[in-house]
Amino acid sequence: GGSGGSGGSGGSGGPSKRDSEGKTIVHAGRSGSSGRRGSHGHRGRDGSRGRDGRDGEAGIPQPHGSVTFCLLDANSNAIVAVSGVRYNCTVSSYTVFGKLHDNIFEPNEEIVVSNVVVHNDGGLPLPEGAVVQFSSTPTVVFQEHAVPVPPLPVGGSFTLTTPIMARLYDIPPAAESDRAFRGTATMESAVRLLNRPFGDAAVGTQLDMRYPVEITHCHAPTELAVGESGRVVLRVVNVSSVPLPRANDVDATLSLRVHFDEHVVPTSREHAATPRCVEFHCSSLGADGAVWENVLDIALVPACQLYEAHDWRVELIWRGKIIQLMKRTVRNTPIYSPALQAPFDRSADVLLVTGKSMTRDNFVVWAAMLRALGLRFDMWDVERYSGLSYHISTNKRHGLTWVGRYHGAVVVLTDAAAHLQLLHAQDISDHFLGPGWREDYDVTSTSSSRYHHTDLQSGMLLFGAPPTALVEHMVDARFDAAHVLTVVGDDFGGNHIGKPDIDDAYKEAEKVAARMNDENRDHYHRVRAFRIAFYKSHHLKYWYGECDVAKVPLLRSSFACALPRKDAAAFTSSVPVDDPTWWQRTPPLPLSRVAKALPPVLPLATPLAEALLSLVAVHGVEWRVRALGFEEMRATHFELPTGARLNWTEVVCASLLDLCVQSYRKRLTALPQLEAVVRAVERYARGACGNFTAHATATPGQEVSYLRVDEAVALLALMYKFKHDAIGFFHGSAIKTEFRYLKRRVKHVTLPSGSKEADRIAAELKVRAKKLAKSIEFDFANLCHCSFPLRDMELPSIADADVRRRCLHKEISMKPPSQQPS
After folding, report:
1. C-alpha 818 chain-centroid distance
2. What is the pLDDT of residues 564-606, one digit of tens each?
3. In 3-state terms, the chain is what percent helix, strand and coil (to 5)?
4. Cα separation of 162 and 293, whole Å?
5. 24-26 and 17-18: which strand pairing?
6. Of 97, 413, 439, 101, nearest to 252 (Cα)?
């Protein structure tokens, strides 16, 4: 706002006073003084923005400036040279070589740099005082030495012949790497004038470092058995251009040293004095790839335990230092040597398939379980024999193969995720269906009686595999054309108002396989391929072409069990034998060394119990019936998560019940497994095996046919429970009649008769059996946390899920209906 205004003027004087004569006698008062300055007014508003001024005129371009360097004479200050380019030097090349002259740069070697070519590419003559220098780096240490460069005219060059000495970096002795040492060393040249470097003179180079000798081949056995020897072959190559020994290098000594632990020893007599360390010395080795080869035979000591792994190492020593170290492991694996009278006689009850995942503690558990179940077992190691069905390298059968030798036995894949890939699908079918199944296999047959599966009793346990592993492996298998049925005509067609398309044929192919699976519940069927040739046979009726359906050569009732658990650390934990609370730890610890004597209470939630019950599930009916009376297992009780306990006999009875019920539900037309159970009970209850013979007093000449009490109760409970769970009210009279007949046969061998005391005992056994039948309310598959892939899993109807995208069809020419096969 503006400043305040000036004060107002004073007021006028008062009026004059007159006397009586009219004369003024008093003058008027003086005017008042000015008032005070007023306050500032309010700030006025800003004025409006003025218009922008016009742009100025563009400047006139001017030529670039220049810099001129003048070189003056030191005495007369006269101009000697004039240039627009200042001083500059470059290094065009230099030579680096080792002092040993072997075309190898090895660690800690002294090297020489010479023939450094310096070029003056500046605009002025290079004066005195310039030097050539190489600075040390982490990989090369140069002597502190600067080589002077003489004055050079513009464009002149000079080669420095004065050697510049340096030493490559050294490395510590080799620790674990199997490979020979490879390294690099870097260096860079520099030209300085007045302690200022020329940037263009920095020329770097990289040297490849290695030792002149290295181990290129170390062939050694990875699998040995006690009493077996293996050959170790070691090859050392001289990659330098100088032979050994070197006349001018007395320190260039070469040797090999092999160290063993106490379980691996050399077998030759010359090394008997120093079995833990064998040393080879090289007296002469040629240049440029000459080979020094050493051979050594090794063996395991008799005290070495099966499936133990022992380490040994090889050291290559050059100039007294270890420059290469190779570590190797040899496992004590068994030689497959079945005791056979004929080429394909069965020598054991179980074939235990092992591999590199099998450790000593793991094997102790498997061996303890198999021995506790009274099972003889052979062992086949896939690492020793380089495969399972075939040799991996040659793709041929092994000279002594296990294939075909274990019909009616069990094959245990201890690492099924890896072993299943080495097992041919044809061998799986041969194991379950028996020899000759390929010749008798009829894809049009809906009967499985020809295979006598109930009598064959073959099984397979897939430990550490998902439930679908076996099914997927068989689905991916390729079958001969003789085992594929081609469906044509009305069986592969449909009704359409318009012309059908590929999706219609695809859906009908799935229906074809589904119909075959419904007609034959013993097998799986799947579509292999279909060929499109749409043909209108009748009004609104079309034929799609040809559909190939393969019958998978496995029975759904085959004894195959998959146990997904694959925790080796938990499975092989070491537990004291006298520790009764081993299973109460967190996490629960399974049995390892204590498995030699099973504990009195074994929780079902442990890996040991699951594996043990899975072994039961893959055995046939006759073995399970015999297993009811195993003395070794009578002291062990299995604890359910609810706290209830089952003895061994009741657990085996539950497995038999599960087998009979499931097989009947798949068929609904017969009782094959239940009948097999009854036949086995009748056979072994009469003392044929010895496990079922009762310890009762018998008069001379009287045949003892009574079972033990718990065995008789378990078998009777099986029949009661089967009737309750499987035989329904609406089932056919033929099934009920057959079941009543089988039930009478079981009572005949399990219940005493002929006296009042026998009748009393029989009545008591019935009461106990009915009580036990009511308590069996669990599924055996859930009991041992396993799955039965062939029985419970469903195969896809189509071989390939993306059959449409892969165009698994082709156009064919369809014949008229009169010429089509029926």
Report:
1. 57
2. 865 544 454 433 333 434 333 333 333 333 334 567 888 887 8
3. 25, 25, 50
4. 43
5. antiparallel
6. 101
